[in-house]
């Protein structure tokens, strides 16, 4: 146990934990599905790091260590729910059905978005920390006015929890009883700053001060994250208002490929968290309780490998866009400075303007 | 043609009322806009008639007012937010430039960011600090935004409605010192397009350009100039971004002289943009360089001094004389 208050249904060794408030009713097949999700996104994320190291991406933000937090939350969503991510929600994007290649457009620096947010009900990435929490609450205010049976999730981290926008979003969500779930992945590090710099109390305790419930869940336990998120979403849809979920997890790798964590954290800490690996504990459960065969596990590994190779091909095929596309959708209505810019680019021969 | 006389504040109120009636997706949000009707009473009576779900009293956090309006826009609502005073918009600056201005682009055109940020601005009301500023240049130079300003009742009535019907986000600047001034409002037909400048007075010698509260000051300067035999053409810019350069250039090609009036400091301002762009278009017509009459490059002064900070008839006429002297 990391903390007495932590909701945990699966120990780091992969054994069931009896937790009074929450029970997992998932079938073996469903748990196997979560395992597959986690193996695939871990492999794809590793491919992202390799692609950046080979000069094919401007940047990559790995999620290794946070797979259970994201797959647990992502699989708890209903199709009609709407989610607002940061730039590190690859597992959520996967659960929303967004093709992996689309997650990479931002990091290949060919787009500032990457997918159709209305089609997948997953907003475009927000890079400015915490902005999306307010956007999510506003969206939830719209859901309320539509009388829709939908919930909204705002994703952010321990670093962003210090941002005014996040705290203002707590005020708004409480005052208007919005159908929103704040999903905070506390991965312990905001680049080089430990979460102890952001908060002197457990982060989930903050919710109480704003007037709604907070819960800390073992973010490396996919079963617990799933159940906690599912209940929070149900409460939101039922009109019971917001919940803050603190998924207590660990960023095993660097903040991004531009980061060097050896400058600010010790190996011993990383070693401790290796024993809490989110993928290994589900694998242990599947092998011991559900007698899943090695061949089935190997099939998943092979599938992930094939997907990573396909992704690599797709990323390498991603061309530099025609420069004139920078004018597309800068405004919805005609604008003289957009026309002027386009005209200049064509006259200078920078673009054929055929776009 | 039905016309009626009302204050600019009432014209905004009626324009908002009509927008709320026409489109169920239109919402208003801001501090004290419900029972109180806003500190300037622009939303007076609207919460009573349209309910608390559509005319929303917001907790006191400007970033949240704009940030939640963004989420509502993504959901398909059109929100007109009220920032209580010019100097209180800065906490929302991040949401405005990072999300409001960029989300249509970032979503490849999927998100409609049609929302209006109402911003009471400029001085002349004898207020304490942070209640008399002209922050419009910050927004005018931000790609993805549009910035407009009304100068009287008829424009106020129509421009607020045109703004909420427009599909791009709009910073709507309202000169506080003109809220209580009355004007004729045509309830049937808009005077012109939202992004068009208006020639308020035709003249021969010097084109004098301004927006918001400055327009009336320029009109008074034109009356005085006329007694001295100088004919000023007065243009109300109305759309600060984008500028209606066709109207501005047509006038300067005729007069050969340009004076721009604004309350913000002139450095990197709407006025400096007008001078620069008109110079490029009208180089061979100009008889003198474009001149600016602006606020000084100091923090807005204590308002006992504001009459010596804001452009006056005398300062405008002095600039006209300098222009004529070239």
Secondary-structure map with pairings?
The complex is a heterodimer of chains A (355) and B (326).
Chain A lengths: L27 H26 L13 H10 L5 E3 L5 H6 L4 H8 L9 H4 L10 H16 L5 E6 L6 H12 L4 E7 L2 E2 L2 E2 H4 L7 H5 L3 E5 L3 H16 L5 E6 L18 H8 L3 H11 L5 H23 L19 H12 L8
Parallel strand pairs in A: 1-2, 2-3, 3-7, 6-7
Antiparallel strand pairs in A: 4-5
Chain B lengths: L2 E5 H15 L3 E5 L15 H5 L4 E3 L4 H13 L3 E5 L10 H8 L2 H4 L9 E6 L14 H5 L5 E4 L3 H13 L4 E6 L6 E5 L11 E4 L4 E5 L3 H14 L4 E5 L2 E3 L3 H11 L2 E8 L4 H13 L8 E5 L17 H13 L1
Parallel strand pairs in B: 2-3, 2-4, 4-5, 5-7, 6-7, 10-11, 10-13, 13-14
Antiparallel strand pairs in B: 1-8, 6-12, 9-11
Summarize the model shown.
The complex is a heterodimer of chains A (355) and B (326). With 355 residues, chain A is α/β, with parallel strands linked by helices.
CATH 4th-level superfamily of the largest domain in chain A: Thiamin diphosphate (ThDP)-binding fold, Pyr/PP domains
Contiguous runs where pLDDT drops below 50 for at least 5 residues of chain A: none
Total number of helical segments of chain A? 14
Structural class of chain B: alpha/beta
Q: From the 3D structure, determine the CATH topology of the largest domain in chain A.
A: Rossmann fold
CATH architecture classification of the largest domain in chain A: 3-Layer(aba) Sandwich
Q: What amount of the residues of chain B lies in strands?
A: 15-25%
Number of domains of chain B: 2
Portion in strands of chain A: 5-15%
- The proportion of residues forming helix of chain A, as a percent range, comes to 40-55%
What is the count of DSSP helices of chain B, taking H or I runs of 4+ residues?
Answer: 11
Uncertain residue segments of chain B: none
Mean pLDDT of chain A: 96
Order of helices and strands of chain B: EHEHEHEHHEHEHEEEEHEEHEHEH
Largest sheet of chain A: 5 strands, parallel
- For CATH, the homologous superfamily of the largest domain in chain B is named as Thiamin diphosphate (ThDP)-binding fold, Pyr/PP domains
Largest interface: A-B, 40 and 44 residues
Tell me the helix content of chain B.
Answer: 25-40%
Outline type of chain A: globular
Beta-strand segment tally of chain A = 7
